[in-house]
Amino acid sequence: MTEWENRYYDSEKIKNTFERLDEWKRFEGSGYNKFVLELHLREVRRHVKKGQRVLDLGCGPGRFSMEMLKLGARVMLADISPKQLGIAKRKIEKAKLGKGVEGYHVLDATNMPEIDDSQYDLVVAYGGLLSFVANKRHDAIKEIRRVLKPRGHLLAEVMCQYGVFREVLVEAPEMFKEPAKYNFWEVLETGEQPWSKFWALHFYTADEFNVFLADNEFAVKELFSMPSIFYAHKEPFGKIIRSKKAMESVYRIEEHVRDKPGIIDAGQYLIAYARKN
Ligand SMILES: C[S@@+](CC[C@H](N)C(=O)[O-])C[C@H]1O[C@@H](n2cnc3c(N)ncnc32)[C@H](O)[C@@H]1O
What we know:
Shape: globular
Bound molecules: S-adenosylmethionine
CATH topology: Rossmann fold
């Protein structure tokens, strides 16, 4: 392993990080989290079709696999963390959704010999997989392309290079006092976050993510940020989350502006829906 690789992607370290986390909690609790969850579910409902073979790559605890199963897809769950896959299996069995499951694979998305070529209609890589693989993102996207059927689709979510600073301001404003310690300037200028306590990350700009997919022979059909205009505005959601009318207004505004210049790079995640050429 070269020093450069060591500095960035390390499969053991990323596995150990996710062995310690319960990713199910990511969307629990606050009204804001419910809003972010609903945005994600809407995209799954829009793109996943009954009977499709779907690879949920970096599936974590299976929250979105369960939605795909409810929609009638046949789902292969894959993750580097056995713990996350174990949570997913338990949740799926408890909800009696196991019929559509094709299997559970512990694997590394940067090299997937476990999966044959041209298998899936859709690969879903939600929750930042192509950010967590850092400098190995070129390997991961090639593997994703390989396991997709001809003209198969990818629904991928990565972390926004500029938007991330909005979250830091809300959640950990003290970090702004020591920008060098937290590697602010490298993230701001290059999107590279070398290993912290938890992970190495690559944050993307919208233009860069678009080029990355096109260079790997994907036709990008949709590209937008999510949440976009309401990202990091957490507290007000406690007051409106139970109002159907208010939330429909919120979703309509988000969906209208999320791909617009001036908004697209300021969200939390970038979502791409792309077809293998
Ligand atoms: C933030 S969680 C997202 C989980 C789920 N997709 C979601 O959106 O709720 C990221 C997941 O990616 C997995 N992961 C990270 N690097 C991976 C890799 N190289 N190969 C496979 N899975 C990986 C982690 O173990 C973790 O479960």
